[in-house]
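Researcher: Sequence of non-specific protein-tyrosine kinase follows. Predict its structure.
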Amino acid sequence: MVRRKKQSKVSNVRHLITKLNPRSPITEQYKTIRTNLQFSSVDGDLKTMLVTSSGPSEGKSSTTANLAIVFAQQGKKVLLIDADMRKPTLHYTFRMDNRRGLSSVLVGESILEESASSSDVEGLDLLSCGPIPPNPSELLGSRAMENMIGRAKEEYDIILFDTPPVLAVTDAQILANICDGAVMVVRSNQTENDAAIKAKELLEVGNAKLLGVVLNDREQNKAHYYYYGN
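Model: Prediction complete. Tokens:
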């Protein structure tokens, strides 16, 4: 992903470029990622994917939300799940209620159909984190999680998980073991090579199928977008 030279202040409120401007060059890059992901699984079923990073603030949550939108814009029925039950952000991004969500489903307080919400993007449903539990790793690796994914697969074409950073906690590794693929986000001029390599190794230990790496926040080269500008 490229960035504008003037960066905005860090905030919980995200402006999703793929929703606000479906014809922008950045949106086209998300569509390219979507296409590459689909090509990466020509011989296999790719219904569940997690997006993670080696560390915090590398752009994984924005990448996950924008990918979910471009999949929905393609006509897919998409469920975006906030599986970061330590620092959830999905409810901020889409300005939704978080009193019920993934954690509620996993502890049996509600069911997926009750906790998932429609978004203002056609075809995209959202499942926020819900109340933050004391034991996220145990919940993500539970039989209840497998059952919920199985139920979601019956209703959705694509299920995307936003997960915590790999080097911080084991949550992404646990989910990688039950997802069809994983995508790692690295931020230009921030992510250390050693950290990215270590994160990849940990995902492989979790039996992840690493589908690719998204380079985020690369400085924009205007000439590159000459043919795509307004």
